[in-house]
Design brief:
The complex is a heterodimer of chains A (189) and B (155).
Chain A: E1 4-5, H1 20-24, E2 30-33, E3 36-42, H2 44-55, E4 59-63, E5 70-71, E6 87-91, E7 94-100, E8 103-105, E9 111-123, E10 130-135, E11 148-153, E12 166-171
Chain B: E1 13-19, E2 22-25, H1 27-40, E3 43-48, E4 53-55, E5 68-69, E6 73-75, E7 79-89, E8 95-107, E9 114-119, E10 131-136, E11 149-154
Parallel strand pairs in B: 9-11
Antiparallel strand pairs in B: 3-4, 3-6, 7-8, 7-10, 8-9, 10-11
The chains are: A mainly beta (189), B mainly beta (155).
C-alpha cells in the first residue's frame, strides 16, 4: 500500500544533489532541449544611421544646438536638455583614451594568453563623448590613459555596418605622449 | 526635426542567436514513474490516503494536504478518455497533413489525467468514456519519458 507520511523535518528536505556524471552517463532520466532562439535587433534611427556611416567609413554624431553637446554614438534626444537633437555631424577618426582595461578573458569567459584592451575612446570634436572599443598595436606596458589614438578600419569591402567595421584604435603616429595620470581635455559632459 | 522611418526594409538591424541548451531532470517522483514506464511498461502513481487521491504522473507531495507521498501505487495500464480534441496544427503552428487526436486519459485507479495522443482503427470510436490501452515503443527506443508511449489506442 502506498504510504502517506507527515511532513519530514526540515533537515530531510535537502534536495537531490546530482553530479555532472549522473546526467551525461544516464544515471537519471533527462530530457535535452536546445531551443532555436533567434533575434533581430533593430538599431533604430540614430544608431542605424551611425552604423550605416561606419560602413561608409564615417563616424557620425548628433548635435544639440541648445547645449552644444555632440553625442556619439548618436541619440535623437539630448540627454542634457530633454529635447530632440538637431543635426548630424561627421567626426574625424582620431581620439584619446579615456580609460582602458587589460583583459585576459575572451567573450565566453575562457582565459587567453594575449590580453585585449577594451577602452573608452573620446572621439575628437565630440566634447569628451566617446565609444567603447578596442586598442590595438599596444601592450600592457604601452597602453596609457590620455594616449592619442586613430581608428584602424576594415577594408571597405569587408565593412558590414557594425561597430567592428573599425578593427581597433592604435597610437597616433607623431602624437605627443600623454601627461602621466592626466585626463584628456574636453570632458564636458 | 525628428526623422521618420520611410523605408523599413532598409532599417539597420543585427541578426543573432542565443545558444541555450537545457538538460531537464525528471525529479524524484518523475524518475520512479519514468523508469517503471521504460523498464516494466507499468504506470506508478502517488496515493494520498487521507485525501483519497491518486496522482498520475506521481508527485512527491499531495497537492491538497501537502503530505509527503510516494510513487508506489500501480495504476492502469488501461484507462478511459476524459476529453479529446483534434489538432490540425503542429508545435510550430504548421498545418499537419494528417490531423492528430489528443486527449486526456484517466488510467484505471488514477484520479488525475495524462495528456497523450489517441489512435483508433476506426476514428469514430474516439469518444469521451471510450476505453484505451497504451501502445509502447520498442524497449530499445525508450528513454523513460512519456513519449515512450506512442499513443493510447481505443480498445
Amino acid at each position: 500500500m502506498a504510504a502517506t507520511k507527515a511532513m519530514p523535518p526540515a533537515d530531510e528536505l535537502k534536495g537531490t544533489p546530482l553530479e555532472h556524471e549522473d546526467l551525461v552517463k544516464g544515471k537519471v532520466i533527462t530530457v535535452r532541449h536546445n531551443p532555436d532562439l533567434r533575434y533581430r535587433w533593430a538599431a533604430g534611427v540614430a544608431i542605424g544611421r551611425f552604423l550605416g556611416g561606419l560602413k561608409e567609413g564615417k563616424i557620425l554624431a548628433r548635435k544639440c544646438e541648445m547645449c552644444g553637446t555632440i553625442g556619439v554614438p548618436p541619440r535623437m534626444f539630448c540627454e542634457v536638455c530633454f529635447r530632440p537633437t538637431d543635426v548630424w555631424v561627421e567626426l574625424g577618426h582620431t581620439g584619446r583614451v579615456n580609460t582602458f582595461s587589460t583583459c585576459y578573458i575572451a567573450t565566453d569567459a575562457t582565459r587567453v594568453k594575449d590580453p585585449s584592451f577594451p577602452a573608452v575612446i573620446e572621439i575628437d570634436g565630440a566634447n569628451g563623448n566617446g565609444i567603447l572599443h578596442l586598442l590595438g598595436e599596444v601592450t600592457k606596458d604601452t597602453a596609457k590613459i590620455g594616449m592619442e589614438v586613430e581608428a584602424v578600419w576594415k577594408p571597405a569591402a569587408e565593412r558590414q555596418g557594425l561597430i567592428t567595421d573599425i578593427r581597433y584604435w592604435r597610437p597616433r603616429k607623431g602624437a605627443a605622449p600623454p601627461k602621466s595620470g592626466g585626463r584628456s581635455k574636453g570632458g564636458s559632459r | 526635426m525628428r526623422e521618420r522611418v520611410t523605408q523599413p526594409t532598409q532599417m539597420h538591424h543585427v541578426d543573432g542567436t542565443f545558444p541555450v541548451q537545457f538538460i531537464y531532470t525528471a525529479g524524484v517522483a518523475g524518475e520512479v514513474f519514468g523508469k517503471a514506464l521504460r523498464d516494466k511498461e507499468s504506470f506508478l502513481g502517488a496515493r494520498c490516503d487521507s485525501c483519497a487521491v491518486t496522482y498520475v504522473p506521481p508527485r512527491t507531495y499531495c497537492e491538497r494536504c501537502f503530505a509527503r507521498i510516494e510513487a508506489t501505487r500501480k495504476v492502469g495500464p488501461q484507462g478511459e478518455i476524459v476529453s479529446f480534441t483534434e489538432s490540425h496544427l503542429g508545435p510550430h503552428n504548421e498545418r499537419l497533413a494528417d490531423p492528430e487526436t489528443w486527449g486526456l486519459i484517466r488510467l484505471d485507479g488514477a484520479d488525475t489525467v495524462l495528456v497523450h495522443r489517441l489512435t483508433a482503427k476506426d476514428p469514430s470510436r474516439i469518444a469521451i468514456g471510450a476505453r484505451v490501452k497504451p501502445i509502447f515503443r520498442p524497449k530499445k527506443d525508450r528513454t523513460g519519458v512519456i513519449t515512450d508511449i506512442e499513443s493510447f489506442a481505443v480498445l
